[in-house]
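Chapter review: from sequence to fold.
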Amino acid sequence: MSHTVAEPGVQRPAVTPLDIVRVLVLLAALVTLALWGFGEWATPWNIVVGIGAPLLTLLIWALFLSPRPVLRLHPFLRALVEVLIYVGVTLAWWSIGQAWAGIAFAVVAVASGVIAGRRALG
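The token string follows.
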């Protein structure tokens, strides 16, 4: 049986259910963009878009939206970047013909973003 011992001077942030939802939203966005890219574009563009769209989204997330972003933005600009990603994923669902999945994604993504944004501001 292994027990974890707290190391002095090391403080790990607590993972909340909101953090888990936010990770799941990001993963759903990446999978959606890959499905959209591979399914909606003709060869060879399907390979380019199917790999490129999720990678570009992940790069934008790492630069601006991650817990320790490379470039810090004003909270309202950060929210705008996040909403633009959500809009893109929602439109991808709609173009696949799955409007209800797009709406469900948008509701969950925006709700988790609003809650996280309010926590960051307050």
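Two observations follow directly from the output. The radius of gyration is 17 Å. Residues 17-40 form the longest helix (24 residues).
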